[in-house]
């Protein structure tokens, strides 16, 4: 399977705990995105990497959230001191982009990690 | 502010008929639009896209139409099949960024 993979698929944690999610993009893709989706809404952008550089962060990404892509391949998203409002589906997507704006760039999504904070 | 709106939360269509899903946007800087399909407990699956320089793109049973002056796009599925039953998301990309802005989705039910 050469699609985007995410682990774990499900995570239940207690309020105040830290959690970390992993995303493995499609192997030749240089761009990687994180989105969050809550019930009844579409995915909302959190952050994006081009290779190992984090190029954009949403205002949704509070100081408790940190994302890394250390070698330009897989990425991790960590949430510290989780709150019940963090309960959501966390989606990762990857794409093949060029320099500047790649006009026909398509993002391919993984299956997501569903987080429940009790 | 919701820059991408899908005003119909759900749509029910008979198998074999046409399904038309609509999407409106407010930001004239959006230059690329995509439709994704999502089954429960799975991530969104890319369906079809269209750039702002075109007004139509077709791929098999799926056709996307873009009306830039009205800031409106639609997805046509002909003929609809029960396996098309899913949530459909419209997404748009801004000219100066790579992030996608999504609508809230439309639940499509195709009845056999």
Summarize the structure.
The complex is a heterodimer of chains A (118) and B (112). Chain A has 118 residues and is mainly β. In chain A, 0% of the residues lie in helices and 47% in strands.
Q: What attributes characterize this protein structure?
A:
heterodimer, A: 118 residues, mainly beta, seven-stranded mixed sheet, B: 112 residues, six-stranded mixed sheet, five-stranded antiparallel sheet
How would you describe this structure to a colleague?
The complex is a heterodimer of chains A (118) and B (112). Chain A is 0% helix and 47% strand. Chain A has strands spanning 5-7, 10-13, 19-24, 31-37, 44-50, 53-57, 65-68, 75-79, 88-95, 108-109, 113-117. In chain A, the strands form 2 sheets. In chain A, strands 2, 4, 5, 6, 9, 10 and 11 form a 7-stranded mixed beta sheet that branches. Chain A has a 4-stranded antiparallel beta sheet with strand order 1-3-8-7, with no helix packed on it. In chain A, strand 5 and strand 6 (53-57) form a beta hairpin. Chain A is globular and about 40 Å long. In chain B, the strands form 2 sheets. In chain B, strands 2, 4, 5, 9, 10 and 11 form a 6-stranded mixed beta sheet that branches. Chain B is mainly β. Chain B has strands spanning 4-5, 10-14, 19-25, 30-38, 45-51, 56-59, 62-67, 72-77, 86-94, 100-102, 106-111. Chain B has no helices and 11 strands. The N and C termini of chain B lie far apart (38 Å).
Secondary-structure-derived class of chain A: mainly beta
Amino- and carboxy-terminal Cα gap of chain B: 38 Å
Model regions low in confidence, pLDDT < 50 over at least 5 residues of chain A: none
Largest interface: A-B, 31 and 27 residues
| Number of H- or I-type helical stretches of chain A | 0
**Tally of DSSP β-strands of chain B:** 11
Number of strands of chain A: 11
> Which runs of chain B of at least 5 residues are low in confidence (pLDDT < 50)?
none
Shape summary of chain B: globular
The average pLDDT of chain A is 92
